Amino acid sequence: RGLYYSDAYGVGESERGDWAHVHYTGPEAYEATAMCCVTAALCLVEEVDRLRPSSRGGVLTPAYALHGSTFLDRLQDASFGLGAGRKMRFELMEGKPPETALRDVVMEKTKKASIGQDDIAQGRRKAFA
Question: What does the longest C-alpha to C-alpha distance in the chain come to?
């Protein structure tokens, strides 16, 4: 878990030409998927009054279905694996991310993955521990 994690940027431009981005850090993708599914289910069960399903009926995107819930707060408050994993963090910022930040994320992730793969190949780390 120390070597494999998610670190990503999402960038968007408004119709007016304004830019914004979100920097997400958290557990690796399989763990994050499980966390999102369980957290969404908890919100749907425990926050019916906030979500008002009868007024939003139909097939919904998760963003619309969970709007007004504690979904993001719950995701950021808990870590995967009974506290042994990374917590999710979402930072919303105006403008585009600096090119150096993007390059640094790619370089660091590549380095950590390479170390992990070498450790497994050399027998220093178990692939499935």
Answer: 57
